[in-house]
Amino acid sequence: MITQHEANNVLALQVSGSTDAPPEIHTDVAVEECIEIVAKTDEAAAAKMRATEAKFAEIEKLAGDPDKVVEYYELQVAGARRDELLTRKLQNIPHEEQQKLVDAWHLVGDVGSMICYHGYRWSGRGVFFTGTWPNFNWFPYDCNDAASSVKAWGPNVLCEHSWYRGRRFYAIGTYMEFQDLRDFGFDNLASSYAPVA
């Protein structure tokens, strides 16, 4: 079940195998359209997007039960500890070294991951995500409405609001860099994240 129908999302799709090729950008599209566009290039990635959207729908149903929300949060915190460790390793090293470190991490994991930077051109505090995270206000991320540039490995989705609501910025490809999210009207908007898995 796809929960978000508004045609105001962004899809960045890397259609060739080369990470040097610029991604194909689609703006102001509905979630269903994003999935259809991806399916033309990569049906497996589109299937993962459908599964991710189904997870969002289930989470939306659970949000009404406070006990389930706390249980969900506790599970997410366990994954966040991994991201916190990797964020610390990525701090204070050059961007090329950051890419090598995350590429090496991806040799053992097949889900997407993303670094969200507070500044443009990958400056300022960088926060590393590999696990689904419903609210950027929560520890350890504390980065709500702060992403101005991103680097993305594999398929990912940033959501405008907490709990995966609002506009979406899909980054579907091998490795992509976006030095200024103002180009997509997504600067300082992201409030939740999920790898597309």
**Average predicted confidence as pLDDT:** 86
Q: For the CA atoms, what is the radius of gyration?
A: 16 Å
By secondary-structure content and strand pairing, the structural class works out as alpha+beta
Provide a count of the helices.
4
**SSE string:** EEHHHHEEEEEEE
Work out the strand percent: 15-25%
CA(first)-CA(last) distance: 15 Å
Q: How helix-rich are the residues, as a percent range?
A: 25-40%
Uncertain runs are: none
Instruction: Count the beta strands.
Output: 9
Walk across the major sheet and give the strand order: 2-1-7-6-9
Tell me, what's the shape? Answer: globular
The largest pleated sheet is described as: 5 strands, mixed
Textual characterization of the structure:
The protein is α+β, with helices and mostly antiparallel strands and 197 residues long. It has helices spanning 31-41, 43-62, 66-90, 95-106; strands spanning 9-13, 24-29, 113-117, 126-129, 149-153, 156-161, 165-172, 175-178, 192-195. It has a five-stranded mixed β-sheet, with helices on one face. It has a four-stranded antiparallel β-sheet with strand order 4-3-5-8. A hairpin with an 8-residue loop joins strand 3 (113-117) and strand 4 (126-129). The chain is globular.
What would a concise description of this structure say?
With 197 residues, the protein is an alpha+beta fold. It has helices at 31-41, 43-62, 66-90, 95-106; strands at residues 9-13, 24-29, 113-117, 126-129, 149-153, 156-161, 165-172, 175-178, 192-195. Helix 1 (31-41) packs antiparallel against helix 2.
